[in-house]
Amino acid sequence: MLVEKDQSILSIKRLISKYLGFPFLLLVVVLISYGQTLGMDVWRDAHAIFFKFNHLYERTGYLGNGILGEGTYRFSVAPYYYVYKLVGYDPIWAYYLLNLVFYFLAALSVYYLFSKLLNTNAGRAASLLFAAGYIGVEGFIDLAGSMIFNVSIILLCLCLLAYFIYSQSLRYRFYVLALGIYAFAIFLTPVRTHYFMGVLLLFDWLWLNRRKILLRLLPFSAFFYLTFLQSADSRTFSIGQYLKDILAGKFYNLYSFFGSLGYLFVPDKYIHYLNSFSHLKLTELLISICSLTIVYLFYRNTNRPIVKIFISAVLTFFWYLFSKTILSSPILSPGSDTSLAVFLGGLLIIVLINILINCHSDIKKYFVLLTGWLMMNLVTYTAYDPVSIISTVDRYIAHSFVPLVGLLSLAFFKKTRLFWLVIIWGALNLLNSVTYQHNVLVSRSFPARNFHSSLRGFLPHIAKGDILYFDVADNAQGHFNAAFTVGQMPNETAIAWRYGIDRYDFRLITEFTDLVKVINHDNVPLSQVYSFHYTLDGLQNTTDRFRQLLANTSKDFIPSTPIESLVPIEVRIQLLATPANVSQLKFPLTLNSNLASNSIAKDMELRQIARAYNQDTITIRRQMKVTTSSDWPENSPLYINDHNLDTAWRADRFIWADTDHADFVTDLLEPISINRLVWFNAYPNHSPIAYQILVSQNGRDWVVVKTYQSTRRLASGDMQIETFPTQIVRYIKMDITKTLSDDSPGISEVWVVPSKYTDLNLVEAEQYLNDPLGYISDPKAYMQTLESLNYTGKVQFSWQDNSLNKWSTLPNLSIPVKYDGQIHEYSLIIPTRGTIITDFKDTFTQIPGKLRITTVKYRHLTLNELQQGF
């Protein structure tokens, strides 16, 4: 009896070891790689999910109505809703535990798929590589997307598994099962399964009778059509346009594909590490040698290996040249990391082709299937935005992770020389996953949790109509964004669900000027305004003092440092300024070396012409009116003529997407003889590259005087001068029909140039006018320049606060100071930022001489003054 009992126990242990041993190992790896998610908090779009729990039948962002939701993100809420019914909003780890379980199930589905498709060793390798994580980690740790990723991966693996079993057994129940799983997958997670129809097509073509492929895939195609094509959005057919653009010679569209492929195989942190060695000038050569070494390992025992290696080397050289063509496009702005990633992506294609040619015939079709699967998912996302590379941790790359681990597991299917390299790759991924999630905890989760905990302590309840104003220190912006940013809904959502109120019941504001506008527009009493200052040290409640300063009658004060800066401060300075004696200066006086070669700065007659040009353009701009075809919120047409390059008009992006057209018209109010239009570009990526300049006498009948087409990328604030035959006109229009990025353009400043200044070099004139004392050739020119300036020069003031912790200034802190040896008073406004100003001083003087501050008075501006536009 004891022997039989021992044998029974031994049999149970063997069964457990056989069926549960590896899954347990897989679970351990998952816990190591993603176990830290249990300590994470809610951020980004997950706020919308938590808000949805108590607003199930209210349209919420992209989530739609009801528990299951609507649209492409319909499955985002349902799994978490039942956790909410069990535990409420706390503990948060319960929601992440559900994700952790599903990630383990996804790893398990990868194991079952590749164990059946390849063999047990390959299945174990693939699932362990997947469990190690890191690739697409942002998708798996984000509550808003991780459930969709996990469920879609599970279902697609099971679908392909069922289809594979059908291909081997030809039992129709497995075909029906595959069809049912596919239909279920695209119903629950359409946002992540749109590419998989191509994978099924490729699999069927490789494994089954090709004559009946259309018949077999017809039911799958019907589901695909009804889900993705019948109600398609603008992105559905982007792949077709993407391929057309490439065939038309727009090779820069390959930037995202090759760069993302490089980051998929080699994590971006390692590419960045390679580029961190500034003395390493031959990085491309080194990785080319590494790739050719891998190719050699496959060819060394074949016929004529040297010839094959030589061909690969030639292909590598041509790819190097072609990659430079891709990267040289003006629409791109690649850094050294992304440039290397693009080059690496092309090398990987060369390596994969060589492996395919030389690999064992038994695994060729597996290699084609997995490579095709990986490429299909990658292309569907890179086609959306071909000029932006997907990083290693980005969620869009997550579905390419599955075929990637399958591809790498081929090293264990037929044990090759590369299996140790694959093991090292997986181990590094595990390390990267642990490190990355630790950084997320420290930089996002813990600060977000502490922020909301402090806010709840300061403000137990929020009433309808309340305003929460947060002044955020520069170094704490990342932490603040982690606590509040909600992509698909207002940022108020992040607070609303915690307080059990609607996101429209209150306002969250981070700019003081916006706060004043809202108070003024909605007539909000100060008793409903709460202010806070947020730094890396935590949240500080400044409400009481903030209200007091805004409400009280303002009085002058002469404080000791530091100065309270919770509200804007008027600084009244009494200055005594005296220009330097000519005998004390050494000529040529070079205060700006850039003007040493400026012909206008060296010539008195040209300087006079430049000053006359400046006065005439100021007069014209003071009276001219600008109208635009459309406007983007916060990019007003007024910004096109406000003498500030930091602001810009921008055309409405939606109207631009529909019409590919934007224009602005300048009404000069009276006919003027002109022959040049000056404009400044606002956004490099959206540089206008096709436009016309038109003129009119009546605003109805237009004449084209200049047509421009290019692919040139313009820097922000880059001055453009459009020259055309002299015209007497009242109206002038710039009609833009194409930009570098195919997104709406932005223009910072515009003015016209009277034709009497035809011979004036405008670039040099503007350089001189910006700094008329930058280069003075002799004492006589110095005195003449001072007289032309009426002995008035700009003095720039700066301040330092505890928010930015460095010297700061603004255009309004540059004031014209009279250098006449007399005391004059000047008024400045220092904006609110931080809680204290630690220092204040002048940091630039245009005229050399003595500047003495005799008296400084400070005054906090009240709400009434601010509302009246003090």
Structure report:
With 870 residues, the protein is of the alpha+beta class. It has 5 domains: 1-189 and 418-458, no CATH class; 236-400, no CATH class; 460-541, no CATH class; 569-584 and 787-867, no CATH class; 589-771, Jelly Rolls, CATH 2.60.120. It is built from 30 helices and 20 strands. The strands form 5 sheets. Strands 8, 9, 10, 11, 12, 13 and 14 form a 7-stranded antiparallel β-sheet that branches. The longest helix is centred in the middle third of the chain and has 40 residues, at 419-458. 38% of the residues are buried.
Number of domains: 5
Strand content: 15-25%
What's the oligomerization state?
A: single chain
Mean of all residue-level pLDDT scores: 90
Radius of gyration: 33 Å
Number of strands: 20
Report the sheet with the most strands, covering strand number, pairing sense and barrel closure.
7 strands, antiparallel
Which outline best applies?
A: globular
Total of DSSP H or I helical runs spanning 4+ residues: 30
Q: What's the short version?
A:
This protein is an alpha+beta fold and 870 residues long. The strands form five sheets. Strands 8, 9, 10, 11, 12, 13 and 14 form a seven-stranded antiparallel beta sheet that branches. It has a four-stranded mixed beta sheet with strand order 2-1-3-4, with helices on both faces. A four-stranded antiparallel beta sheet has the order 5-19-16-17, with no helix packed on it.
Task: Spell out the key features of this protein.
seven-stranded antiparallel beta sheet; 30 helices; 49% helix; 870 residues; alpha+beta; four-stranded mixed beta sheet
